[in-house]
Design brief:
Radius of gyration: 18 Å
CATH topology: Pemi-like Protein 1, Chain: D
Shape: elongated
Number of strands: 4
Structural class: alpha+beta
CATH class: Mainly Beta
Oligomer: single chain
Largest sheet: 2 strands, antiparallel
Strand content: 15-25%
Length: 74
């Protein structure tokens, strides 16, 4: 599939056809991971459980950062 970018405000968007979204089970509220190797862009759906885990993990790390650093220095 070949497509072009669309200007939206100061950003650019790519339109993903409904058939592709259905195939990948991507909905309007799905989290997507965008990566690049410097030549191409990969957009992948993210497991919602992984998103929740990472959010919880970041919250714990932020709250207990001093403790983790002290334990690492032992």
């Amino acid at each position: 599939m070949i497509t072009k970018l669309k200007k939206t405000g100061n950003s650019r968007a790519i339109i993903i056809p409904p058939a592709v979204l259905d195939l990948l089970k991507i909905s309007d509220d799905s989290s997507l991971e965008v990566t690049t190797n410097g030549v191409s862009i990969t957009i992948s759906p993210v497991d919602e459980n992984q998103v929740l885990f990472e959010a919880s993990n970041n919250k714990v790390i932020k709250k207990h950062l001093k403790t983790f650093k002290a334990l690492a220095d032992r």
